[in-house]
Amino acid sequence: MQGLDEFVPTATKITYLNSLLLCGFHTLDFGSFVSPKAIPQMRDTAEVLKGLHLREDSPALLAIVANERGAEEACSFEEIRYLGYPFSISEEFQKRNTNATLDQSLARVEEINKRCEKTGKTLVVYLSMAFGNPYGEKWHPDIATHWSYRLHRELHIRILALSDTIGISNPHNIHDLFSTLIPELPEMEFGAHLHTLPETWKEKVDAAYKAGCRRFDGALKGFGGCPMATDSLTGNMPTEKMQDYFIEIGENTGVSSTTLDEAQKCASLIFPA
Fold first, then answer.
1. What is the SS3 string spanning 163-210?
2. CA within 13 Å, CB half, 108
3. How far apart are CA 222 and CA 237, in angstroms?
4. Which of 205, 253, 269 lies closest to 14, judged by CA?
5. Which of the four, 74, 84, 91, 178, has the lowest number of CB atoms within 10 Å?
6. pLDDT (average), residues 191-209
């Protein structure tokens, strides 16, 4: 929702998220504890949390944070299990996204992870620009590998989502990166946070799955994406299409297609077609 100019009423957000809680997902990224000046759409995250109908079998809740202050606020809520932090291997994008250098960002990861450990939560790091760089900076798969090793071995990060921030990934580099890192770091859980054009989603999911990835991020209708993407059609990975893919290959996601359809009706009231 953060890309929408018009503020989505808190009650509407709550209704939509409650429909997603019934679908059977493992984790629900429900909000962000970030500066309301930077992302006004997320200023009501704490209020939204109060309205969620949580049960014992509800998905785990994940909140995005960009610094220690946001982490402190997120960790104060018992209902939240995961904190997500965007760590970019691009210095330029890290500055644009979290107003920090790579060294500063690494220090933030360390402090946020310590806070998570003290409060019984788990930090999910999104390794953004893992598949390419639009700023002319040096990029190579080995750079993504290098940072994956450091985050795991030095800072003890256990969940790392390889992130295609601008939709630049392709089946070849997706397969190569996952198939390299998953065997090398068996104690790390790797996820795929992929952005895509409408016609390339399946080949990307297929490449990650065949390389051993079993954690996938998505958004209904594929809405969202990164404002720095060069193509306005580049959006998030469409959840409903991933569900169809996994059903097709015989993979049980635990997600109910019936309740997912109901959630899509709620989504249509918020997101443009």
1. EECCCCCCHHHHHHHHHHHHHHCCCCEEEEEEEECCCCHHHHHHHHHH
2. 24
3. 5
4. 269
5. 91
6. 95
Q: Which of 259, 252, 185, 163 is nearest to 214 (CA)?
A: 252
Structure tokens given for 177: 């990166």
Q: Which amino acid is at 38?
A: A
Q: Answer yes or no: are the C-beta atoms of 193 and 84 closer than 8 Å.
A: no
Q: In 3D, which of 242, 157, 233 has the Cα closest to residue 204?
A: 242
**pLDDT of the residue at 66:** 93
Structure tokens at 100: 């920090």
Q: Across the strands, what pairs with 195?
A: 236
Mean pLDDT over the full length of the chain: 93
Beta bridge partners of 215: 191
With a pLDDT cut of 90, the percent of the chain lying above it is 78
The model's pLDDT over 84-94, given as tens digits with 9 standing for 90+, comes to 999 999 888 88
From the candidate CATH numbers 1.20.1560.10, 3.20.20.70, 3.30.930.10, 3.40.50.1370, the one assigned to the domain spanning 10-267: 3.20.20.70
Q: Where are the beta strands (DSSP E) in the chain?
A: 27-33, 60-65, 80-88, 122-128, 159-164, 189-196, 215-216, 235-236
Cβ 61 vs Cβ 79: under 8 Å: yes
pTM above 0.85, yes or no: yes
Residue 71 CA to residue 83 CA, distance in Å, equals 7
Under 8 Å between Cβ of 260 and 25: no
The structure tokens listed for 1 are 């929702």
